[in-house]
Amino acid sequence: MTSDTWLVAGLGNPGPGYAHNRHNVGQMVVDELASRMGGKFKTHSSRSQILEGRLGIGGPRLILAKPMTYMNLSGGPVGNLAKFFGIDATHVIAVHDEIDIPFDTVKLKLGGGEGGHNGLRDISKALGTKDYLRVRVGVGRPPGRMETADYVLKDFSKDEKKDLPFLVDNSADAVEYLVRLGLEAAQLKVHTS
């Protein structure tokens, strides 16, 4: 297994109709990382769009991935890419929406439960472990009695859209900290800022 290579999977649903949904914030973050790396995504046989590159000159090698399956089937593409590139689960980072965290907040963790997130559940099944890294991008809880599924499949509100670029930017920074500094140092930077 290559210790210098990381798989960063931005979770979401495929197609333009879902592109701006809360559920697709993971893909927005991976798009931001791609723009920082100056590369373009290409289609891969794992049913993903991927971009291979380095984080800065001489930096760690990243495989940025956007699974082209629906969210709850994210495991197949992520598992296939990890196998294809010989990446251990400890070097897999899933970037995803998180309703249990307020909007505009980013949290990092390794392993643990999936909190009802079907995309994570499918990745855990495909990797055979829950011990992979997560960048949890806060989208807040649904208002009133709105169903969670309806809420995450809606676009961000007008007020949220003003702050969304900062949230995406901070989440991309969090991925970079994870890769460069490791989990504990990254948590100190992200959770205290």
Automatic annotation (TrEMBL):
Location in or out of the cell: Cytoplasm
Family matches, as CDD domains: PTH
Active site per UniProt: H23
Record has RNA-binding as a keyword: yes
Residue sites binding tRNA per the record: Y18, Y70, N72, N118
Signal peptide: none
Main location: cytoplasm
Site features described as Stabilizes the basic form of H active site to accept a proton, chain residue numbers: D97
Keyword Phosphoprotein: no
EC nos: 3.1.1.29
Site positions for Discriminates between blocked and unblocked aminoacyl-tRNA: N13
UniProt GO MF annotations: peptidyl-tRNA hydrolase activity
Keyword terms of this UniProt record: Cytoplasm, Hydrolase, RNA-binding, tRNA-binding
Catalysed transformations (reactions): an N-acyl-L-alpha-aminoacyl-tRNA + H2O = an N-acyl-L-amino acid + a tRNA + H(+)
First-level EC class: hydrolase
InterPro entries assigned: Pept_tRNA_hydro, Pept_tRNA_hydro_CS, Pept_tRNA_hydro_sf
Entry's family note: Belongs to the PTH family.
Role according to the record: Catalyzes the release of premature peptidyl moieties from peptidyl-tRNA molecules trapped in stalled 50S ribosomal subunits, and thus maintains levels of free tRNAs and 50S ribosomes. Hydrolyzes ribosome-free peptidyl-tRNAs (with 1 or more amino acids incorporated), which drop off the ribosome during protein synthesis, or as a result of ribosome stalling.
Quaternary state and interactors: Monomer.
HAMAP family for this protein: Pept_tRNA_hydro_bact
Name of the protein this chain belongs to: Peptidyl-tRNA hydrolase
Species classification: Bacteria, Bacillati, Actinomycetota, Actinomycetes, Micrococcales
Gene name per UniProt: pth
